[in-house]
Amino acid sequence: MSDATIERHRPRVPPRRPLRLSWSDERVRGAVWQALVVGVVAAILWWLIRNTAHNLEVRRIATGFGFLWREAGLPIGEHLIDYAPTDTYARALLVGVLNTLKVAVVGIVLATLLGTAIGIARLSRNWLLARIASVYVEVIRDLPLLLQLLFWYTILQNLPGPRQALNPVDGVFLSNRGLKLPWIEWEAAHGAALLALAAGAAGTWLYARRARARQMADGQPRRVWPAGLVLMLGLPVAVWAAMGAPWTVDRPALRGFNFQGGLTVSPEYFALLVGLVTYTAGFIAEIVRAGILSVGQGQWEAAQALGLRHGQVLRLIVLPQALRVIVPPMTSQYLNLTKNSSLAVAIGYQDIVSIANTTLNQTGQAIEGIAIIMAVYLTISLSISAFMNWYNARIALVER
After folding, report:
1. What predicted TM-score, i.e. pTM, was given to this entire model?
2. Does the keyword Cell membrane apply (predicted)?
3. Helices (H), the chain
4. Helices 89-122/352-363 angle, 10° precision
5. DSSP letter string over 185-205?
6. Does residue 142 lie in a domain region?
7. Could you give the CA distance from residue 154 to residue 220 in angstroms, rounded to a whole number?
8. Quick one: 219 and 296 in the same domain?
9. Is residue 139 a contact partner of residue 132, using CB atoms and an 8 Å limit?
10. Could you tell me the residue range of the domain that residue 220 belongs to?
11. How high is the pLDDT of residue 215?
């Protein structure tokens, strides 16, 4: 193709008009209005900050975050790290952040699994199963979340005491003191094995990427599961065995008026988790159902013509395509579950909101306490959004 032909097909760019310092030029008007808006917002913020500082000074209220390093004297019944009332407010708030993350992370995983199952059940050919799933969605979504949390907490509080605890499975006890489960005595070998599992999962993912790249290059499929089995099972077991293979199960036992040993799931955490999971799963179910229905019927027919069973069509053909519709609204539900966990204060679970409220009541520094709560939820929400946006971009269709 000649240079003249290329020049003829090249899109023409309109000439750039010179900037005129006149109100009739839309660029000048836009710059003036933007500067005016920024100035008004800055003036409002300056007035709020100055007025707040003046009021705090008049009332002789201390400001700053120096209180974080004072002794808290705050009892916290449930904590993932070592904590005592003699520790600082900073450590108490850290315990609250970890308690919030414990609810959010576990809740997101369980709500995703339950919501996906219910969403698929709503499309089932079994009339009874589809109707039960529909009733679940309609009832759960129409009831306020706070009411559901109080409902589950009341049920757990009305369970029998430890001496009459329910014992559905050997070593598992359910009472008004919570859920008691057998648990292993954690040692250094278990932590090393867990790190080896994480390393094995990363190695499996890298090996799978390389195998797919080589298959695209030469057309020869390569098995990933043998390497994954070695990395994700053999490596952790080898590390665990090399460090002595400790395996001591700590089983709960009734001693006096309560159980000792094992893993304890408090009634507050249990009620909060069940309430958040069941409530959010109702919304996720509708998102999954809508995503599946967005895939054309021709995809089902083409896959069935190849001899694939219904479950295989759903798992291998439909759901991967539906994810592009499911992921964006699913992100909103993950954020809602995380923010709704702040209702834990209503049933006595000590998350970041509960501990920060107690802290600001004891210290009188409400602005700093509320700022900490806002910063924690903003950080968690932005982290979830960043991860989901990355995943959504990864599964997006790439035009050629």
Report:
1. 0.80
2. yes
3. 3-9, 26-58, 89-122, 127-142, 145-157, 188-218, 225-229, 235-242, 267-293, 297-305, 310-312, 319-340, 352-363, 366-395
4. 150
5. ---HHHHHHHHHHHHHHHHHH
6. yes
7. 59
8. no
9. no
10. 187-247
11. 79
